Amino acid sequence: MGVFDHLARRIADRPVNVSRRGFLAGTGALVLATTLPLRPARGQTAAADAPAVTAYLELRPDGTALLRSPFIEGGQGIFTAMAQIVGEELDLAPENFSVEIAPPGEPFAIMGGFRLTGGSMSTRTGYPVMRQLGAAARAMLVEAAARSWGVAAEELVTEPGEVIHKDSGRRAAYGDLAAAAMDLPVPAGVALKDPADFRWIGSAVPRLDVRAKSTGRQNYAIDVAVEGMLLAALRHAPRLGLTPAAVTNLQEIEAMRGVHSVHLLDGAVAVVAEKFWQARRAIDAAEIDWTEGEAKWPMPADFSSAGFRDSLATAEGEVVEVEAAGDAAGQLAAAETVIEAVYDAPYVVHGQLEPPSATARFNADGTLDLWMPCQAPEMFQNAAAGAAGLEPAQVIVHQQVLGGFFGRHFLYATANPFPQAIALARAVGRPVKLIWTREEDFLRDAPRPLGLARFRGSVGPNGPEALQIEVVGEGPTQRWYNAPPGQDPSATEGISGKTYAIPNKHIGQIFQANPAVIGYWRSVGHSMHDFMYEGFLDELAAAGGLDPYEMRLSMLSGSERHRSLLERVAELAGGWKQGPFEAADGSTRARGVAMASPFGSEVAVIAEVSIDAGEAKVHDIWVAIDPGQVVNPSTVEAQVQSAVALGTSQTLVEELVYENGEPVARNFDMYPILRPDQMPRVHTAIVGSGAAMGGVGEPGLPAVGPAIVNAVAVLTGQRIRSLPLSKYDLG
Amino acid sequence: MQLTINGATHDVDVEPDTPLLWVIREELGLTGTKYGCGIAQCGACTVLVDGVATRSCVTPADSVEGQEIRTIETVEETEVGRRVVAAWVENEVAQCGYCQSGQVLAATALLTETPNPSDDDIDGAMTNLCRCGTYNKIRAAVRSVAEG
Fold it and tell me: If you measure CA to CA, which chain B residue comes closest to A207?
């Protein structure tokens, strides 16, 4: 997600401003705010106009702290990481924090200004800001104590939660100093801690939310209750572009128990009722005539994913250069043997277990409250204002903790329920909570695009000599942010941006519009392109009679960071061996290896696989991950587990098939996701190389698939170039 | 109809075939039980019916009249439930947490019936889906309860 990487660097480089929240003076608490000025990449505006995200730190008289995080929690552990970082500089133990989501910031929208939780960039972008926030608060508490005791601030030290004057033995709890600290000016440029003195950053601080999430007490958007609300269920047109003409059994539906009203929306019919189940029962009974309507991206009635895949395989068009070195074309023309292959990966749904929902309430003062899952609150606020005919400042977005996201809750026209909830709340004059059933989520999700790449390569005695790749298709960053072909990392990343030294290479994109409404899926372009590239690399190794691990090592001689990471994963796995070999349980197994460079981090993976009744069984995944610097190793390990699960899932079983313009699967019965008994053991080595901090949420995913597929090729002699593996009988 | 949920008897006025899930969420206002798929595939809606892990999204309310229904909100009222929750916290199982109510109840049912489950027992009982992929930590937490 290169656009976000770029943004992350911009934020990290910016000075941080911390200010006191004057309007909260007199509450006995120390309240600090900091702003992350996020500006459009071009056209810098005056600072006063810059959209800002406000992150509040409130230190209360009881010594606990409330932190309003700019980043949303959806399972990745970001609330804990934020508390850890602020707590480190504040010198307050993370367990004394409660963390909430910061509301959309002021001033609001100018074009291009946004924040989001995604791109594996929360920790790396929040890190400098949160440290400054904690450091400023600590300095003010120290100063308050110094003034109270009539001593110099330099004579004071802190221990977690208190200020201490060692000479006199006096101590004061932070909570008792908070009110006095609030009256002090906010210091600028407070010195940060020496990382060597870190107490919590770099440690496995326990998650703050595990107990609530183990006892059913964590609420999500779907659990929101608003006084006087009605519940809504809907059915979308079977394909985008159709819209309801009539509900032919309208009277019957209106007479069903609990039904308040039936509504023809743009591309959908909704039932509003006293209870959700009543609305659901009624919409299921509705008989709807659909007719051609208006849509920005109408789905062709004859669209099929198989047909689209074939059209990408043969597509002609301008090859926009993304990356080039040497003379790939010349080298391939002169090569004795050219290896050619076409790789593809299917549409996949996000499949977050919490179905999408939105609750809308119009207020007497003309404002609109919205409760919903979202990864980019200011963008949703602007879009909601447009949908409601209001100013953004009149829309109050209550972001909710996410029941999984994986890219599902970005702003995707046609994939977010809130415009429909707004329309329904306005129509009925009461608050409305709209829940999409799982079936509607499958129908209107913005899936990871089906992708395809065409490879040509040659190999010599020491490794690949030339590589020519055409990536054919469209990336989500072009669809949603107008990134042109060749400048849309989401369309090529994982094929572009690889680290291996290949003397002659040419990587280009042939743009082909994707008829489906496509979106970001965990690790985005990497989620499929690294599979393609690393698979083809193994094909070149096989053609050259080279060991795939040794060949990769030799291609990394220019980068000690990558070479040592690859060696580290082999060491973790007890040494590299490709197999096939017999395991202790009598099964025949093999290993595959792959690497990826996603979201500012570096990853090497080895997979051990056997074939059982024609299906691949993944026994072990070894992951060496180098995010440069680590805030919480326990979180990193959990995110690697999670990324391995999703990577294994999409490699083994996931595929959203379209026929006749419609997805065939509408729920998890026809679209399996990884089951508990399919989960491999995961062994993780976290390498903190000291390089610039990279992401953690997504990087563990991309190299999993190719490592599995490369092992399958060793076992079966069959080179899989199209996912998922469940399409094949591997017996 | 009358339903016995978390030790109390509730008079509920719903269509007899209303799924137990929606009775629990909408009539009783207990939101710890989650809607995930509605077709008994994911297990986010798992509750205990006479101690048996049951997918409430496909369980008609009138089919469980007279039976003891327990939801995540009272899981810690039994010794096994308490230990399972403690193990979930200790192992930091949860990520997004949406499936974990169901996972905790499935584990509670398993460990109440089979205090020392084999791997096959765990595979057979712990079938709820988790999109965050917490499966290895779930298994570790179940084992830690079994090993006491």
Answer: B92
Chain B nearest-CA distance from A15, in A, is 32
> What is the ipTM for the molecules in this complex?
0.98
Q: Write down the pLDDT at residue A43.
A: 30
Domain end marker among A192, A212, A232: A212
Task: Compute the count of residue pairs across chains A and B with CB atoms less than 8 Å apart.
Answer: 169
The CATH number of B74-146 is 1.10.150.120
Report the domain count for chain A: 3
Contacts of B39 in chain A (CB under 8 A): 438, 667-669
- Domains of chain B, by residue range, sit at 2-72, 74-146
In chain B, residues with a C-beta closer than 8 Å to the C-beta of A352 are: 96, 98, 131
Residues 6+ apart with CB under 8 A from A583: A589, A610, A619
**CATH number of the domain within which A617 lies:** 3.30.365.10
Percentage of residues of chain A with pLDDT beyond 90: 82
Q: Do B133 and A209 touch (CB under 8 A)?
A: no
Task: List all residues 6 or more positions away from A101 whose beta carbon is below 8 Å from its beta carbon.
Answer: A68, A69, A72, A73, A399, A400, A401
- A476 and A482 in contact (C-beta within 8 Å)? no
Asked if A673 contacts B135 with a C-beta cutoff of 8 angstroms, the reply is no
**Is the pLDDT at A713 greater than 90, yes or no?**
yes
Considering the domain architecture, whether residues A207 and A235 belong to the same structural domain is answered as no
Average per-residue pLDDT for chain A: 91
Find where tokens 């994963």 sit: A569
- Chain B residues whose CB is inside 8 A of the A214 CB are 85, 88-89, 93-94, 97, 100, 104
Query: Is it the case that residue A429 has pLDDT exceeding 70?
Result: yes
